[in-house]
Amino acid sequence: MNVGINTRILAPERIDAMLRQPSGLIALLEHDHGDLRRQVEERMRRENEEYYRDQLNQPDLPLHEIVWYLRDHEDAAGALRAAAVERLRSPEAFLHFTNTLDKQLQKLQDIEEALNDTHPGLRLGSIDIGRLRGTEQWLRDQCRERGLTIADPTLSDWLSGRYTDFQPDKAKIQSVMQFLTGRENALPEEASFDTSGVPEGDRLRARLNQRIREE
User: How far is it, in rounded angstroms, from Cα 94 to Cα 115?
Assistant: First the structure.
C-alpha cells in the first residue's frame, strides 16, 4: 500500500496542487504542523500590528484569516507549501492529511443533506472553505450571545432546526448560503444584534466583515 502511495500520490507536484486549495491549507494547519502555522501568524502580526493588537495574548489567529492571507501573499504561501510537501511525502503523514480532508467533505455533505431535508428548494452551490470557517465562528457567537450552552454547534444541526432557542428562518438561511458562496458579503445580524458584554464575538465579526469587504 505504501509503495502505491509513494509512486502515484506522493509526487511533490501533486501535493503542492492540493495545498494550493483552501481546503488543503485548512487540512494542513487546523490540527497539525503548528510550527508552520506560527510562522505565518508571526508574519501576519508583523505586517499589521494594529489590526492584530487585541490578539497579542491569543495563541492562534483565526484559521480563515490565515487562508485569506496566504491567498493574497504567494511568497508566504509558496514557502509554506515547500515545507509541507516534504512532510506530507511520508505515507503516514499524507494519510492523516487526507483523512482531515475527508472530514471537511463530510461536513459539506452534512450541510447539503440538512438543506435538502428542511429547505429542498435551496442549493448549496460552490462554497468558499475560508468563509465556511468564518460562518462557523459566527454560529458560535450567535449561540453564545443567546446563552445557549452548546459545546460545538454545527451549521448542519442549526439548519436542521435542532437548536430550539435559535431556529433558522428561510431568509436567514438564504443569507448564510449566499455568504458561503460569495454572493453576499455579510452574515445576517452583523450590526443589529446586541453584542454588549461579548467583545470577543463583536471583534471577530467586525474583523470578518472588514476582510470580506476588501475582497
Answer: 32
Q: Which of 96-105, 125-134, 205-214 has the highest mean pLDDT?
A: 96-105
Give me the numbers of helices (H) and strands (E) for the chain, helices first please: 11, 0
- Please report, as a single letter, which amino acid is at residue 120: P
Going from the C-alpha of 109 to that of each of 64, 78, 102, 122, 160, the distances in angstroms are 20, 30, 10, 14, 13
Query: Sorting pLDDT into bands at 50, 70 and 90, what band is 57?
Result: low
Instruction: At 57, list the grid cell.
Output: 495574548
Contacts of 93 (CB under 8 A, 6+ apart): 87
Nearest to 136, CA basis, from 121, 155, 150, 115: 155
In sequence order, which residues have a C-beta less than 8 Å from that of residue 86 and are 6 or more positions away? none
pTM of the model: 0.64
Percent helix / strand / coil, the chain, rounded to 5: 65, 0, 35
50 Cβ contact partners less than 8 Å away, ≥ 6 residues apart: none
Q: Cβ(132)–Cβ(185) under 8 Å?
A: no
pLDDT confidence bin for 84, thresholds 50/70/90 = very high
CA distances 175 to 40, 84, 188, 190, Å, are 31, 36, 6, 11
